[in-house]
Design brief:
Length: about 450
């Protein structure tokens, strides 16, 4: 029996264990094998590499929409090479890239240079895409995201799942959520604003832009959205302002039937995961280590929550599962004196999550809202404990009690910190934590029910 004469089912079982490079070589053998292998290469493209979607770091509760690919990508150039091949503005053979992109149903990739307009402009050409996962690595030193043009293309008609992580331009987030929202069933967001380098740097990689108005006492509220940072160890800022405002003349309707062009429509959304950095609350004298002082942008905080509110309101009739995650900022040197579980427990009063919880309580208490909601998962949100139950004296615990009265299942898990570079301000958003799972002294990690604590340890449930 030759390779060419193998039954199709047996052939596909064998090729399921091959790498992308090996499959590519198979396509050159004969027409029959090419016809069988070609969909394997182009239907699902997974170009995440080590650390971005590792099984030990991916949230297991609730289960991920797409399991990590068995293929290991060792080079960070894979995604760049792919998008260079697929550029559609080439004078020759422009139709072939469009044909290939139309075959892709699932695209999962790291964008190493978030200021690359090539990658973002290609997204609308994946016309049959059902699942999209993008992780933006970072900006070039002095590039302003405002240089990324708006995406004016029609929405992807079959897109059901979108996951946008880290440094994704506002224009891209706006297009995916606002323009493609009509078909989305699951949405996961962990968006970061441009970093701000520490003011102690002589040659900062990411100097403040004029709109940042760092420590500018003369800047009015109208002149700056983020005037509350001081420039010292600026915790990565959650991205806000990516949804078009009501008076945005450039916003377009999600459908021809929508009269109010600014209205966000998410009529099918059932699963929503919202993640962001959060303020580090100094534990003061309660700390068993020397706490470091950080800067936090309260205006970025408010802008992020404003967009979250609109997303929650737009999905209030259909939402079944809600995941909320906050990661307090931590420079990498913190790991020398404290581990992640201890760091996460320093905000016992839950002050870092108060604004988020206040907003959620207000939305949940509105009449006829969130009737389909059945499960809520909290990561990095303190809930306290009182007689084995979440404490009403802590914002997160108060939320859990409210959900319990509404017969909504809720679990609170420890969560993890948001590592970032002390000087450049860049976040390591891929949840890669050096000392958490590698030989750490268990007696220093605390425990829950006699078991060592990890980032996904269950703290309370109702």
């Amino acid at each position: 029996m030759t390779l060419e004469s193998l039954p199709t089912e047996l052939f596909l079982n064998i090729t399921a264990n091959l790498t992308a490079d090996e499959l590519t070589k198979l396509t050159c053998t004969c027409k029959r094998i090419n016809a069988l292998v070609h969909p394997l290469l182009w239907t699902n493209i997974d170009l995440y590499h080590g650390g971005y979607r590792d099984t030990s770091r991916e949230l297991k509760v609730p289960q991920p929409f797409i399991s990590p690919s068995p293929w290991v990508n060792h080079t960070e150039e894979n995604a760049s090479d792919l998008f260079r091949v697929l550029e559609v503005d080439k004078p020759k053979g422009a139709d072939r890239p469009k044909e290939l992109m139309a075959q892709v149903k699932s695209l999962c990739t790291v964008v190493e240079d978030s200021s690359s307009t090539c990658v973002w402009s290609l997204l609308p050409h994946f016309t049959n895409l059902e699942a999209l996962q993008l992780h933006g690595q970072c900006w070039h030193d002095l590039i302003d995201e405002e240089s990324i043009p708006e995406i004016s293309a029609p929405p992807i008609p079959k897109l059901r799942f979108a996951k946008l992580s880290a440094y994704i331009p506002r224009t891209v987030a706006k297009w995916v959520i606002f323009r493609c929202g009509m078909t989305l069933e699951r949405l996961e967001l962990g968006l970061l604003d441009r970093p701000i380098s520490d003011e102690r740097c002589g040659d900062p990689k990411f100097p403040p832009l004029p709109r940042d108005a760092v420590d500018d006492s003369d800047a009015s509220d109208e002149e700056s959205d983020y005037g509350s940072v001081t420039g010292m160890r600026v915790i990565p800022r959650p991205l806000g302002g990516f949804l078009p405002a009501k008076n945005d003349p450039g916003s377009e309707a999600q459908s021809c039937d929508s009269e109010e062009t600014f209205e966000l429509l998410l009529p099918r959304l059932k699963h929503l995961h919202l993640s962001r950095p959060s303020e580090k609350i100094n534990p003061g004298s309660r700390a068993s280590y020397n706490p470091i002082d950080y800067s936090w942008s309260s205006r970025a905080d408010e802008a992020s929550l404003a967009d979250w509110r609109r997303i929650l309101q737009a999905s209030s009739n259909t939402l079944e599962v809600l995941v909320l995650e906050q990661r307090p900022g931590a420079v990498e040197i913190e790991a020398d004196s404290v581990n992640s579980p201890e760091y996460m427990r320093s905000d016992e009063a839950g002050l870092g999550s108060k604004l988020l919880i206040d907003m959620l309580e207000e939305l949940l208490e509105q009449e006829d809202g969130f009737r389909a909601l059945r499960c809520v998962y909290l990561y990095g949100i303190p809930v306290g404990k009182s007689h084995g139950k979440p404490s009403e004296h802590v914002p997160g615990g108060r939320l859990m009690r409210l959900l319990e009265r509404r017969n909504v299942t809720c679990e609170a898990r420890l969560g993890s910190w948001c590592y970032f570079d002390d000087y450049t301000g860049e976040a390591r958003w891929e949840r890669e934590i050096d000392n958490e799972d590698e030989g750490e002294d268990e007696e220093d990690r605390g425990d829950v029910g006699g078991h060592p604590m990890k980032w996904d340890s269950l703290l309370a449930s109702v």
